[in-house]
Write a structure and sequence with these properties.
Number of domains: 1
Shape: globular
Radius of gyration: 14 Å
Oligomer: single chain
Helix content: under 10%
Order of helices and strands: EEEEEEEEEEEEEEE
Length: about 160
C-alpha cells in the first residue's frame, strides 16, 4: 500500500534517533500542519515553533504501514511554541495525535511548551496505550482525549 504524505512543512517518517532544533514552520497554506511525525521513535524537537497553520502546529500519527518503526514512541517536544494554529474545524492548535491501528501506540511528552491559541491538545486512538504527557506547559486551550487516548498534565 503506498503511503500518503500529509500536507505539512516538516514531514518526518519512519525515523529513529533524531533531533529537530530551533526551526520555524509558519503559514504553510490551506490544509497543512507545521510538523508531522509518522512512525518515529526517539525524536527530540527542541525550541521549534509554528504559527498560522490551518491543521495545527504538530501532528503525530500511526498509519499502519510496516516499516522500521510502528507507531510513535519517544517523541519529546521541549520548549516548543504554538500561535494561531488549528483554525480548521476539529484540529487542535498545539498537537494532534491520531492512532487508529490496533497495537500501534503514540507516546508523546511535552515539556515547557506554550500554546497561545484556544485549541490545545487532541488525542484520538483505538489503543489504550496512546498517551500525551505534559510537564510545565502553558496551555491556553482545552485538551481532548477520545476512544482510549490519555492526556496527563503535570504542573
Amino acid at each position: 500500500m503506498p503511503r500518503t504524505i500529509p500536507a505539512t512543512a516538516f514531514f518526518i517518517n519512519d525515523c529513529t534517533y533524531s533531533t529537530l532544533a530551533s526551526r520555524g514552520s509558519d503559514n504553510n497554506g490551506p490544509n497543512r500542519a507545521g510538523y508531522s511525525f509518522q512512525n518515529v521513535s526517539g525524536i527530540s524537537v527542541n525550541g521549534c515553533g509554528a504559527e498560522q497553520n490551518i491543521n495545527g502546529a504538530f501532528q503525530a500519527t500511526s498509519d499502519g504501514t510496516a516499516g522500521t518503526v510502528t507507531g510513535v514512541r519517544g517523541l519529546v517536544l521541549t520548549g516548543c511554541f504554538s500561535y494561531s494554529n488549528g483554525t480548521a474545524a476539529g484540529f487542535p492548535s498545539l498537537i494532534n495525535c491520531v492512532s487508529t491501528v490496533t497495537g500501534q501506540h503514540i507516546k508523546v511528552t511535552l515539556i515547557g511548551c506554550t500554546d497561545k491559541t484556544s485549541g490545545g491538545i487532541s488525542v484520538t486512538s483505538n489503543n489504550t496505550g496512546t498517551t500525551v504527557l505534559t510537564i510545565g506547559c502553558d496551555l491556553s486551550g482545552t485538551t481532548n482525549a477520545v476512544n482510549g487516548g490519555v492526556i496527563t498534565n503535570l504542573a
